[in-house]
């Protein structure tokens, strides 16, 4: 609360994100409707998590490569991944499994939490968490709401 007027002080998305990312977090799967660009919800926060790799990629890559992106950095001294996928159709959802195969070597027994930040309207009627949990039982998938 703001002591002057007794109204709650809202946390920024970056502050909220920092409450989710812990030493047991292996990565984030980020689903959007459009290719990777600076206007996407979460880009600022995920750029911070990837030590600037995200904006470097946006500035240097062609539009085609911005549909599926995989970044690796570190978190609390352990590997951390950010998987971005632009979902245009139900078929694109299957690309999550390709990204997860890249991520599997980074996931450990005690560092197995993976958040799903789903901003894609094209995943309606698909329970992404359920699909992932059925396929990767050893990973703790959770929704990320920032």
Question: Would you write up a description of this structure?
Answer:
By secondary structure, the chain is of the alpha/beta class. Strand 2 (68-75) and strand 3 (78-86) form a beta hairpin. It has five helices and five strands; from the N terminus they run H-E-H-H-E-E-H-E-H-E. Helices cover 27% and strands 24% of the residues. The protein has one domain (13-143): Leucine Aminopeptidase, subunit E, domain 1. The longest helix has 9 residues, at 95-103. The mean pLDDT is 88.
Indicate the topology.
Blueprint: H1 13-20, E1 25-32, H2 43-49, H3 53-60, E2 68-75, E3 78-86, H4 95-103, E4 113-118, H5 128-135, E5 140-143
Parallel strand pairs: 1-3, 1-4, 4-5
Antiparallel strand pairs: 2-3
Key traits:
single chain; 146 residues; alpha/beta; Leucine Aminopeptidase, subunit E, domain 1; 5-stranded mixed sheet; 5 strands; globular
CATH class: Alpha Beta
Radius of gyration: 16 Å
Helix/strand order: HEHHEEHEHE
Poorly predicted tracts of residues: none
Percentage beta strand? 15-25%
**Domain module count:** 1
Mean pLDDT: 88
Counted beta strands? 5
Question: What's the CATH architecture?
Answer: 3-Layer(aba) Sandwich
Annotated CATH topology:
Leucine Aminopeptidase, subunit E, domain 1
How many helices? The count is: 5
Largest sheet: 5 strands, mixed
Distance between the termini: 19 Å
Instruction: Please identify the structural class as seen in this structure.
Output: alpha/beta
Strand order of the largest sheet: 2-3-1-4-5
Which term fits the overall shape?
Answer: globular
| Helix fraction bin | 25-40%
